[in-house]
Amino acid sequence: MDESAATASSVPLEPSEVSDLASSFERFVEDASVKFHGALRLLTRDRAEAEDLMQDALLKVWERWGHVQSLDDPTGYLYRTAMNLYLKRRRRAAVALRHAIRPRPGRDQLDEVESQDVVLRALATLSPRQRMALVLTDLLGYPSEEAGRLMGVKPTTVRVLVSQGRSALRTSMGDDSDA
Fold it and tell me: Is the C or the N end of the chain the one with fewer CB within 10 Å?
């Protein structure tokens, strides 16, 4: 945002200035709306979508009207805003569609139960402090500083407990795999 736009949005406007802004925006909308709506209908191929897009674009332009009205081509700004909104909606729809139709592998519930059992048995071999440090940092994703605050110990202590716990897990998992 340039300085004039930042200054315009931070300085309170007089009621007459607000009225002038509103009337100039209304004239702008009246002049541009028929062509703009037609262009959006051609773009979206859907009347309701074009109307929604038009409202959203006009709202964005109104929010910045103090700056936009001084541009060489405020209509171009309106069209660019509408195009950006349209492309954003298309990208979101494409992502949602990909997530909706992505084939998901079937869950092997027995394998999940066995994995949980192995993890629980391995964690049971650790001291309570090592187990807490590992759960907070590795499973819940807390940094050592936050985990230390939650445990009431120094972050260094958390890192030592995590290291000891990981070492003990490697040893116990290695023993389980040999058996």
Answer: C
Rounded (to 5) percent helix, strand, coil in the chain? 80, 0, 20
In whole angstroms, give the CA distance from residue 179 to residue 177: 6
Contact between residue 173 and residue 126 where contact means Cβ atoms under 8 Å apart: no
Each domain of the chain, given as residue ranges in start order, spans: 3-101, 110-172
pLDDT tens sequence across 27-39 = 999 999 999 999 9
Query: How many CB atoms are located within 10 Å of the residue 158 CB?
Result: 26
**Please, which pLDDT band fits residue 177 given cuts at 50, 70 and 90?**
very low
Q: Could you confirm whether domain 3-101 is CATH 1.10.1740.10?
A: yes
Choosing among 1.10.340.30, 3.40.50.10540, 2.60.40.10, 1.10.10.10, the CATH entry for 110-172 is 1.10.10.10
Question: b or e along 85-121 (b: 16 or more beta carbons within 10 Å of the residue's beta carbon)?
Answer: bbeeeeeeeeeeeeeeeeeeeeeeeeeeeeeeeeeee
Residue that has been written with the tokens 């002049």 in this structure: 31
Spatial separation of the C-alpha atoms in residues 67 and 23, rounded to whole Å: 15
Q: What is the pTM of this model?
A: 0.51
